[in-house]
Specification:
Helices cover 31% and strands 26% of the residues. It is α/β, with parallel strands linked by helices.
Length: 272
């Protein structure tokens, strides 16, 4: 339970994850309140994806992980799918399936014993396709989609699942800037109006800072900074853990942009 007495959406206590005999997440503890958005950030290999997969019950972990008050390890796959939806970084999809049929698979945890979708399931899918600008692609097979179109279809399936916790692993990596904003605004709306809890692993620090309520910086599998975007996105912190030179630019409305800062090169004439 949180300090307010309300059940948290997710709680991790001393979680460790091993992959290929190597511990990639070390002693991770965190609590995420319902209806909030946590961004996991960190350099490549920091353990972000492994942490998400452990929360989704797809990677064995030491310590304890609970979702909506129940231990993930004790939930059956169907019940876990009602609670948690995952958008992986590299999804494996049935390429011959149409977009509609693929998104409809998201309703599987809610179908009856015969596994048949009802009118309400099709209505959910139709709404999600509309909101993600996929209606014109509904009858096309997944094999014919571009990378960005496929990424939107995968997110559509996750949203159709109707889970209370949405896990996103680099959700905008294949999208152009317009669809990046559309997708993140849709997720933000679901969070603000539907009580959705979001955990996203994101490389784009500016987008992460603009949409997340809080951030957790992982480095070499360990939590090294946590707090609001303003508290975590600091030039010295990013320099230390990303080995990058950046500037933080505030747009005056509380949004922080992380701008790469190219070092000056000596002996190079300035452009006219």
């Amino acid at each position: 339970m949180s300090a307010t007495g309300l059940m948290s959406a997710v709680e991790l206590e001393h979680v460790g994850v091993r992959r290929g005999g190597v511990e990639v997440v070390h002693d991770l503890s965190l609590r995420i309140e319902r209806g909030s958005w946590l961004a996991l950030i960190g350099p490549n290999g920091a353990g972000k994806s492994s942490a998400l997969l452990a929360i989704a019950g797809l990677l064995r972990a030491s310590g304890s992980i609970s979702v909506l008050g129940d231990d993930v390890a004790r939930l059956d796959r169907r019940e876990l799918a009602r609670r948690v939806a995952l958008v992986p970084q590299s999804p494996v999809v049935p390429h011959l399936a149409t977009v509609t049929d693929y998104v409809l698979l998201g309703r599987t945890p809610h179908t009856g014993a015969l596994g048949r979708e009802g009118t309400s399931d099709h209505a959910v899918v139709a709404e999600v396709l509309e909101r993600l600008d996929l209606v014109q692609l509904a009858g096309r097979s997944l094999a014919t989609l571009s990378g960005g179109e496929l990424q939107r279809a995968v997110l559509a399936r996750a949203l159709a699942q109707g889970a209370q916790l949405l896990l996103l692993d680099e959700p905008t990596s294949a999208l152009d800037i317009g669809h990046q904003q559309d997708v993140l605004e849709l997720v933000a709306t679901q969070k603000d109006t539907g009580g959705l809890t979001v955990i996203s692993a994101m490389h784009d620090l500016t987008l992460a800072g603009q949409y997340a309520d809080s951030m957790l910086l992982l480095s070499s599998g360990r939590a090294v900074a946590t707090g609001t975007p303003a508290e975590v996105l600091r030039e010295d912190t990013i320099a230390e853990h990303y080995n990058a030179r950046v500037r933080m630019v505030d747009d005056g409305e509380g949004n922080i942009a992380v701008v790469p800062s190219r070092p000056r090169r000596t002996g190079v004439p300035e452009r006219p």
